[in-house]
Amino acid sequence: MSETSTGDAVAIAASAAAVAGPGTWRRAGIAGAAIGVIAAGAAAGVAIERLTVSRGVRKKARLALDASGPYGSLRGTPGQALADDGTRLYYESDDLDPEAGAPRRRRLFGRKAPAPVTVVFSHGYCLSQDAWHFQRSALRGLVRTVHWDQRSHGRSARGAAQLGPDRTPVSIDQLGRDLKAVIDAAAPEGPLVLVGHSMGGMTIMALAEHFPELVRDRVVGVAFVGTSSGKLGEVHYGLPVAGVNAVRRVLPGVLRALGSRAELVERGRHATADLFAGLIKRYSFSSKDVDPAVARFAERMIESTPIDVVAEFYPAFDEHDKAAALAVFREMPVLVLAGDRDLVTPSAHSEAIADLLPAAELVIVPDAGHLVMLEHPEAVTDRLADLLARVGAMPAAANVGPYGSTAQPGR
């Protein structure tokens, strides 16, 4: 589920609860105590910093990182797709540069040239299309790409069904239909490569389940990054089993309760920014030398997701089971990639996907957490570029653009 799932849902609930007051937790039952125990681990992680660095200095550092970091600044040609419930979905496309060495399209006897391969990137829970910043920068001009924001995330509109009188919960199946709407609007013809991280990977599986003919007819390759085909209810996020089970039982209700007091919760998230940042870093990255600007970039994306949106999406993950849908991808090149220290969708879930797709390339990235595409962009981009070369989306000899490194200088 992305840089999130129980890990970030707990982070948001814990930081909000810190200032929400005892009345909120009385209404939430035992959840306050359970989440508080989990949050204590991250609180300890920032305790030394609080002893040596003032709150004002820390705030100024965050503002400086916000101002100087280039991450998430890439923009393309904007467009909108309309989901089946009327939700407006925002996407951007980056077109092929014919001078960049990509395969040229030709006109044959006056006929229209075939459409190029389009690579469609789907992001995870509590993120946005900008989560693919490094890969987008590296591939820009070499291949046509489409980046979109899932409903209620980024620049897309709040889910119409979730705001309607029936308050329909979000489902992974709905996200699959949303992806179909984006494809219809942004890439109505030509071959496709689908790339999904966490919830984005689950979205691709839902597309395959509901639109198998589209996948068979047009999809020529797929990449699943840090995702799962099911059994997310068994993930323990690096925490004691008993504590996680207690939180899992009460967290949906807690999130709903907090979502009804969204304004108070959002104030709480800002007031406890250090704790929130510590929790996000724990569940997003594994490396000790991640660039602080990258860590802050991830934090900004996650904290921009309103608490009521977190609540609307969270229940869908325990219900997610799309292992059977993977059969549609058996006959095509597949990349399955995960971080070896992912606490949200552990690498064992990627191994399970690869077991169902014996011809898939399985890559486990060392010292990598859930946001592997930000933490180790070179590893993800290189393997993705290889997949694109294999399916003919770009020449094997093409040099991907600069994608930088998240390592701090001198380490």
UniProtKB/TrEMBL annotation:
InterPro entries linked to this entry: AB_hydrolase, AB_hydrolase_1, AB_hydrolase_fold
Q: Mind listing the UniProt keywords for this protein, alphabetically? A: Hydrolase
Q: Where is the AB hydrolase-1 domain?
A: 118-377
UniProt superkingdom = Bacteria
MF terms per GO, please? hydrolase activity
A Pfam family the protein falls into: Abhydrolase_1
In Swiss-Prot or TrEMBL terms, this protein is called: Alpha/beta fold hydrolase
The scientific name of the source species is Streptomyces jumonjinensis
